[in-house]
Design goal:
Mean pLDDT: 84
Low-confidence stretches: none
Radius of gyration: 14 Å
Number of strands: 0
Order of helices and strands: HHHHHH
Largest sheet: none
Distance between the termini: 9 Å
Structural class: mainly alpha
Oligomer: single chain
Strand content: under 5%
Helix content: 40-55%
Length: 126
C-alpha cells in the first residue's frame, strides 16, 4: 500500500482524503472499540491537557469509531465537516508516523504500534 499520495491539481481534495483515510484506517469500528478498552491502549501517546488522563490518540480513536459507525458504507455525501476535519488529522498522523516508525511494524509492545492503533491503523495487518 502506498501512502505517499499527494494532491494533484484538478483532483477533488476530499476524494483523496477519503481514500487515504479508508486505506490508513485498516481497523473496523469493532476492532478499534475493542482495542480502546484494553489497558495497553491508554499508555501510548501524549496526554490531553484537560486533566482526564486520556491520550490524544485514544480520543482520536473514539472519534474514528463514530465516523466509521455513522457511515459504514463510506458514502461521500454522509461525511460532515467535523468528520472531514478529523479524517484530515488521522491521515496526517498515520502517514507521518508510518514513515518514521519502523518499530511499529515489528514490535507490538512498542508505544509506536499502540499509538498508531489508537489512530485506527494496525501496523501488523497487511
Amino acid at each position: 500500500m502506498d501512502f505517499s499520495t499527494v494532491y494533484v491539481p484538478g483532483q477533488d481534495m476530499d476524494l483523496t482524503l477519503r481514500r487515504e483515510f479508508n486505506e490508513l484506517v485498516n481497523m473496523t469500528a469493532q476492532e478499534l472499540e475493542d482495542w480502546l478498552k484494553e489497558e495497553s491502549s491508554t499508555g501510548a501517546g501524549w496526554q490531553k491537557e484537560d486533566g482526564s488522563g486520556e491520550t490524544i490518540g485514544h480520543e482520536s480513536g473514539r472519534k474514528i469509531i463514530e465516523i466509521l459507525k455513522k457511515n459504514p458504507d463510506k458514502d461521500p455525501d454522509k461525511y460532515e465537516d467535523e468528520d472531514i476535519d478529523h479524517m484530515r488529522r488521522v491521515v496526517a498522523y498515520n502517514k507521518r508516523h508510518l514513515a518514521q516508525e519502523e518499530t511499529a511494524k515489528k514490535d507490538t509492545d512498542s508505544k509506536s504500534y499502540k499509538s498508531l492503533k489508537n489512530w485506527g491503523h494496525d501496523a501488523q495487518k497487511t
